[in-house]
Amino acid sequence: MIEALPLVRALHPEVRLLLAGDGPCRADLEALTKRLGQTEAILFPGFVTDVVQVYAALDAFVFPSEFEGLGTALQAAMAAGLPCISTKRGALGEVVDHERTALIAEPNSKEFAAMMLRLINDEALRRNLSKAGRSEVEQRFSADRMVENTIRLYEDVLQKLRKDETRQIDLREH
């Protein structure tokens, strides 16, 4: 994303990037920001306790993860109604659907820049992704839905175990 920013800002100098969080890569990311001359455009607030406030301040959410499980930060952004850009790496392909719930990019600067520019330039796309992303999270990834799916899975496993036990008893009788 940091490498994509100069490409985006060449056409839209007003764009800013907020990188919330902290970790071992932060110093490298800050150094890259300086090297690319983007220090005035990229904010590093560090660890954030009020994530809802951060999402409320954003116009869009970009999730450039290359190794991800379910992507809870992405799901939270979608639930907040933010139009999103993501990769399909790891399990993210089960969370996002290209051009329906989010824009999908391979993790490289040119693709992220192209997707960011699409969002900036297309209000209808932003509105559609926002609505569909929120709906997708509510329908498929809400806490209630996750509990229902877990119970259904356990019931299915128990039913199969009972069938196997019955089959083993029948085989012993013959």
Outline of the structure:
The protein is mainly alpha-helical and 174 residues long.
General description of the model:
The structure is a single chain. With 174 residues, this protein is mainly alpha-helical. The chain has two domains: 5-141, Glycogen Phosphorylase B (Rossmann fold, 3-Layer(aba) Sandwich), CATH 3.40.50.2000; 142-174. The chain has seven helices and five strands, in the order αβαβαβαββααα. Strands 3-4-5 form a three-stranded parallel β-sheet, sandwiched between helices. β1, α2 and β2 (42-46) form a beta-alpha-beta unit. The radius of gyration is 21 Å and the shape is elongated. The mean pLDDT is 87.
Strand sequence of the main sheet, in spatial order? 3-4-5
Number of strands: 5
Outline type: elongated
Query: From the 3D coordinates, which CATH architecture of the largest domain would you assign?
Result: 3-Layer(aba) Sandwich
What is the CATH C level class of the largest domain, in words? Answer: Alpha Beta
- The separation of the N and C termini measures 66 Å
Rg, Cα atoms, Å: 21 Å
User: pLDDT average, as an integer?
Assistant: 87
**Which fold does the CATH topology of the largest domain refer to?**
Rossmann fold
